Amino acid sequence: MASPVEQFQIKTIGPDLHVAGMDISFTNSAAFMILATVVVGVFLTQSMSGRHLVPTRIQSMAELSYEFIANMVRENVGSEGRPYFPLIFTLFMFILAGNLLGMIPYSYTFTSQIIVTFAMAITVFIAVTIIALLKHGTHFFSYFLPEGAPVVLAPLLIVIEVLSYLSRPISLSVRLFANMMAGHTMMKVFGGFVVALGIFGVAPLAVLVALTAFEVLVAVLQAYVFAILTCIYLHDAIHLH
Amino acid sequence: MGLAFRVGVELVAGVIVGAAIGYGLDQWLGTSPWMLIVFFFLGAAGGMMNVYRAATGQGLAVGYDKNPDDDGPNGVGPKGSDHSDGGSPDGGKKEG
Q1: Chain B: nearest CA to A31, how far in angstroms?
Q2: How far from A200 is each of A106, A144, A207, A213, CA to CA, in Å?
Q3: Whole-model pTM?
Q4: What is this model's ipTM?
């Protein structure tokens, strides 16, 4: 029987390409990333091409997702967050498309690769740090010493604050990756039970049905969490404590 | 479930970052294992600080506000004076 983690295997599509000792071959992971981008692009352009005053169903979906993120940015970052809306909207739609495409049987979930989520998280982290430095200059470093803290404790508190700041990209990436990987592994394990138990396989099958619905929820929720945490980090960078 | 999982990951991330920095410093300064021990605990403290912030709703905890009639920026601290958009009445309606 196939191993439950076999679904996460990276397979090369086409020729093996090596540049400067690095493997840059086109993989199934890359293929699904391109597919996610294409799906989002087609969905947004096609649904809005009609520009009906009273939206059709598909136009309504596009408008809802736009307004959802626009409200999220306005509520959590404030009006200064406007310029960063495209970044957050792109991140949200990309992760959402990746998570939901992964729910299709035989597809590949690229958000279950730690390197993919970490690349997105470290991009957000670096961008947020640069924004904070540009906005506040050296005043940004006062962020690491809580106001009114005794000076004696400063060496300890600064180290702890810096560590808690540095742990942001880790927690941001691990959360998305762990959720997707654990959920998909669990589905495959229960799928294995269904086959192995024969007629009694209806019991794990019932669990699997519930688990699949739950996994769709997790797919949407984790895209939402990633986007809202990016908003919170942006808020911190713009307003400082 | 969202908040619980967040808190757990936050704690682990702090420890991972602390231990990684401690290990790196040990390799660099040749002080093994002291930096690893010190930074492991500092990282755990940083992680707990993140958890505390997430749980008490200051700074980082946004998005898990279950209170629908709270139209402020969901718990982003009291200093959030950005009500310039007319205090949206639909604040936090899509939690569920």
Answers
A1: 29
A2: 25, 58, 13, 22
A3: 0.81
A4: 0.71
